[in-house]
Amino acid sequence: MSTLRDLITDGRVHVLDGAMGTMLYSRGVFVNVCYDELNLTQPTLVQEVHEAYVQAGAEIVETNTFGANPVKLSSYGLEEQTEEINRASVAIARRAANGRAFVVGAIGPLGIRLEPWGPTAREEAIALFTRQARGLLEGGVDGFILETFSDLNELEAAFRAVRGLAEVPVIAQMTVGQDGSTSYGTGVEMTGFDGPITIASACSTAASASGVGVASAIPSISIACTGSCAPSAIRYC
To answer: In Å, what is the CA distance from 46 to each residue of 15, 37, 166?
Structure first.
């Protein structure tokens, strides 16, 4: 039986699902609601979105956990349910995938600035990400997607949190503007993690690009750059 690692290293183009929040909003869930909590309060609704993407041909579906970290959940008084929400999200995605797609745990930014841009220490950030990653692993994800990061230091903290718990595949996304830099001013060529990482200059092209192939110096991690409206079809290399 093939694994997620087999899929992302086969040199072919693969299709991921699309936005979860947009689909939930279109189904009447307003923005004043914690979308991550829907894994507990409206699991059928979340499952229907996953199922629609699987039926459309998605080979990888992401859990409904983009903001399911203790910091963002604390805005709704849900930080103590971090692990529970993340575990539940995996069960929902698994039911929807029904063996037709892999399930990756989606982790987004904390919503706070890390040093040197803010007061949050690197180790504190790793601890926060670890709580979310642990819940997703307990749920049984095939791997992780670190989604839509702008700060390379924060992306590293999320990666370290995952690696501190498991050696599963990790897909990492950095959001890059059309000028070729993140909102923090990081260019497409940068150094971080365990060695130099070069992100292809194609990452700064218009959002109509169908996919971006990126090489990574980190074992078991693929770095993908996406424009603000780029479809989730990424070629890993």
So the answer is: 20, 10, 26
